[in-house]
Design goal:
single chain, 168 residues, mainly alpha, sigma factor, sigma factor activity
Length: 168
């Protein structure tokens, strides 16, 4: 009698596709270390979602998750690079400590994530109002939406800012 227990779906998925995914990411990123990190993070996402048994097309599913992680990684690097350029332009006495730098970067990443979660219309309205100082009417005219829609989207964005501020 065979008493071997078949591995759980996540173990099988990992065993069957981790090497392939790591190679795919290495070709995309040109860096083995980052590829290994993102392959690991891809499987962590699946583990957190606990849905490995429902995957019908494993490689397509893995690539979809990995592409999102690659985009997130490049977005974070872009934000960090912009911040470092800003720091480099500051006079030396105004330089910030490594701890402050880490806190600022963490906050910038959180704001970026929050803005991304708003959706394109609300994000654009928030940015036009906050950084260009446009009135509701001008924003509505520019985007072809009503002033009521502008107010609704801006209220949602500001509510998210408050939630973010409470978490800090």
């Amino acid at each position: 009698m065979n008493t071997a227990v078949s591995p759980d779906p996540l173990t099988s998925l990992y065993r069957d596709h981790h090497g392939w995914l790591n190679g795919w990411l290495r070709r995309k990123l040109g860096n083995g270390h980052d590829a290994a990190d993102l392959a690991h993070d891809t499987f962590l996402r699946i583990l957190a979602a606990r849905n490995a048994q429902a995957i019908e097309e494993p490689r397509k599913y893995l690539v979809t998750i990995a592409k999102g992680l690659v985009v997130d990684r490049f977005r974070r690097l872009s934000i960090e690079e912009a911040w470092l350029e800003t720091l480099a332009a500051r006079p030396e006495p105004l330089a910030v400590s490594p701890e402050t730098r880490a806190l600022i970067l963490e906050t910038l990443f959180a704001i970026d994530h929050m803005l991304d979660a708003l959706g394109p219309r609300a994000r654009e309205i928030f940015l036009l109002a906050q950084f260009e100082g446009l009135s509701y009417a001008v924003i509505g005219e520019r985007l072809g939406v009503s002033v009521t829609a502008v107010k609704k989207h801006l209220a949602r964005a500001l509510a998210q800012c408050l939630i973010l501020a409470e978490g800090c």
